[in-house]
Design goal:
The protein is built from 8 helices and 8 strands, in the order αββαβαββαβαβααβα. The protein is α/β, with parallel strands linked by helices. Helix 2 packs parallel to helix 3.
Length: about 260
């Protein structure tokens, strides 16, 4: 989904004290960027226009957020949305322009975020070789493991069934286990659910939203995630095992936590 270039975005971001542009010097010291570094730290990978980001930061003032995206034009929109919701200088939000494919250059083990959000990332379903670009591919998940807090969670949403099924296998291979899963988020009544501009669009088209919460477990045996390829046979085997071993029913109305 492409956006027209916005001439105002870069000047506004340059003047914004809570915007950070591809600065690796913050690695391992993100908590110190906030007035209350002792509070939980949540990351959003691919925040887009920040519609849901702004609502989260507004409603959860005691949680610190870093919202990352590569595109300066969408980050300009995110800045305006956050300022409208939280004021011109939100205490608990930072916007980061960065390539999430290299996110471990920007976050390190001392940052220890308790939660990562991945919502409506590009499914990359056009060709099998493009799968490695997914934000849920093992080469990404193993990067997140390198700095996620012990027992930390990844909250994942998508409209794409293929991406969702593949991602179940990816998370399993990387040592994450599901604590919540639904194939129709709105029908399940899951909360809290902060709706992004993408979710509004797909829901309006009648597409059910797939969602899951994964918790980080023990690390898998040493392997090279950059060379991982999910074959149909392996995919089917993993999904069948998950069905047998894990209760993946659509449970309750509340997520693992209400914050």
């Amino acid at each position: 989904m492409h956006m027209r270039k916005k001439k105002w975005a870069r000047p506004e971001l340059a003047a914004c004290s809570w915007y950070i542009e591809e600065d690796e010097s913050f690695r391992n010291r993100w908590r110190a960027c906030f007035a209350h570094p002792e509070r939980p730290l949540h990351l959003e990978m691919g925040c887009g226009k920040g519609v849901s980001t702004a609502a989260m930061a507004r409603d959860n003032a005691r949680i610190n957020y870093v919202a990352a995206d590569l595109n300066a034009d969408v980050l300009g929109c995110a800045r305006r949305n956050a300022a409208a919701a939280c004021g011109e200088n939100p205490e608990n939000l930072r916007l980061l322009q960065a390539d999430i494919c290299f996110i471990s250059h920007f976050f390190g083990p001392e940052d220890r975020p308790e939660r990562i959000y991945i919502s409506f990332c590009n499914p990359w379903t056009e060709h099998p070789k493009h799968a490695k670009r997914r934000l849920t591919h093992p080469r990404q998940l193993m990067q997140y493991r390198s700095f996620l807090a012990e027992g930390g969670e990844i909250w994942f949403k998508t409209d794409d069934e293929t991406l969702f099924q593949d991602s179940l296998a990816y998370f399993d291979r990387c040592g994450f286990f599901p604590v919540y899963l639904t194939h129709d988020l709105h029908a399940a009544g899951f909360r809290p659910n902060y709706v992004s501009e993408h979710e509004m669009k797909f829901t309006g088209e009648g597409i059910p939203i797939k969602a899951a919460v994964f918790r980080m477990g023990p690390p898998p045996a040493a392997w090279d995630p950059t060379r991982y390829r999910l074959t149909p046979g392996v995919r089917a085997e993993i999904l069948a095992r998950l069905d047998r071993e894990t209760d993946l029913r659509e449970v309750g109305q509340d997520g693992p936590e209400n914050a």
